[in-house]
Amino acid sequence: MDLRREQRYSISVPGRYRKGTGVRYNVAIKDLSEYGCQFSDLVGRIEAGDDITIRIGDIGPIAARVKWVAKREIGVEFDQPLYPSVLDHIIAAGGTNEKAA
Q: Which of 7, 30, 68, 100 would staple 75 via disulfide (CB 3.0–4.6 Å)?
């Protein structure tokens, strides 16, 4: 049973994240909602609880907190929800417009 509070979208959008003023790491954003997203971290430099900023396509920086890490998959929650128009823009740029499983 899916207990998430929001609809999530499968997307394929390039992004970047960084902790503080550190190095930026390129990632592929693959799951998005107005409250957060999921991506793979091939570098493995972040942990649950870390505060990061993330860019999703041409949007950002967006302040977020790492909620979970499973192997190299990362789930983050945005400090502020995305505006509906921003969410729609990102989905149009790289989304399948399908609800993520």
A: 68
